[in-house]
């Protein structure tokens, strides 16, 4: 008899626990209203390396020019209404005069390896646009960041908090070296494709939140302030895009790949925008 009671006991508990229980509340079963924008700006963010700061590729040679044309053909399918490049809008007149020169002759960019020209100008002209848009911003280094250089982190390497500061350094360094060795085997197009993958984005996100941010905690807050400035810069960049766009626009952003994850994060939390996955086009 005892064995039978034990056997049926779990079923009995389920029965009595179910008595008087209400069905789960549906997510949309609420009196509260949500904020939303009916007319959204679609945004495609293409992360890139800075062409004139890297030496792995000669972007101007014939083979890499073909690689860039392949990239343009894939991205053209998004059919952007505006193309943005990572330059401060205070230089708008200079770059748009250059863009007008490029509309007159393709020769204008044949000796210019910067991605602003090789990607931004090229794509805007393909799409028949009459202008290019600029959206960078660099906040001043103030407070703990005054006179900042990356060497500023060095003073924390041998501090009393070195165990805390460097907790993830070995792992980050190992992953970086592995990823870098893989990227160095890729041609230009595939390199650009991988820069827009979730794997690379996840590495960039994790590194910035696992390494630099730790330096100066409870003292000068150098690392936290440095990361805060990075968010500030990208928020300002997002606002340039928002102010220069119209509802139902489709905007294409060419930007350093480490901006891509944070801009997508910020724009996904801003109802005016609908972020489109660039990797799907590549």
What's the helix count?
Answer: 10
Order of helices and strands: HEHEHHEHHHHHEHE
Strands, count: 5
Global outline: globular
Q: If you average the pLDDT, what whole number results?
A: 90
Measured between the Cα atoms of the first and last residue, the distance is: 68 Å
Report the C-alpha radius of gyration, rounded.
Answer: 25 Å
The side-by-side strand order for the widest beta sheet comes to 3-2-4-1-5
Main beta-sheet strand count, sense and barrel state: 5 strands, parallel
Outline the low-pLDDT stretches: 1-22
Helix proportion:
40-55%
Proportion in β-strands: 5-15%
Structural class: alpha/beta
Any descriptors?
single chain, 282 residues, five-stranded parallel sheet, 10 helices, 5 strands, 9% strand, disordered N terminus
Note down, in words, how this protein is organized.
Strands 3-2-4-1-5 form a five-stranded parallel beta sheet, sandwiched between helices. The protein has helices at residues 2-18, 62-76, 92-104, 115-126, 162-165, 169-183, 188-195, 198-210, 222-244, 257-268, and strands spanning 41-48, 82-85, 133-134, 250-256, 273-276. The chain is an alpha/beta fold.
